[in-house]
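Pipeline run #58 for the internal structure catalog. This entry was flagged by the ingest filter as a single-chain record with no existing model, so it goes straight to prediction. Upstream metadata was stripped on purpose; only the residue string is passed forward. Reviewer on rotation: M.T. Logging verbosity set to normal.
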Amino acid sequence: MSGRLPSIIFKEHELAAFWNSPLLDSRLKFIIYALAGFTIEEFGKAVTITSIYRKGDASIHGYWRAIDIRSFIYEEEEIISIIKFLNGGIIYGKEPFKTALYHNVGQGPHIHIQVSHNTYTVVQKV
């Protein structure tokens, strides 16, 4: 074992099965892997997935195109950096919506990450 922290953690066991489902939009995996690299490198913190698919849900979670991640482990400035990192490089493709947002829809504040049929990434010159 390398001694490194895991970069992606699942709040509940069933989330790992959802993560491995072929129904999950593959672009979400790409986004989460990129985000996990960013949060480990920048803050030394992993990404904890708290929600993926919600059976019978009319929201984008019901279509395998959204993931929620835990936010209370990050400082306010870190949350702002995460949202800028994601929305700066991944375009949702359907204005005025964004790929990432920090919100509370009744189950506590969290970072919501979503893709549409039109989502694409932007490669930025460094």
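catalog note: The longest strand covers residues 47-51.
catalog note: Residues 8-121 form a domain with the Muramoyl-pentapeptide Carboxypeptidase; domain 2 fold (CATH 3.30.1380.10).
status: ready for reviewer M.T.
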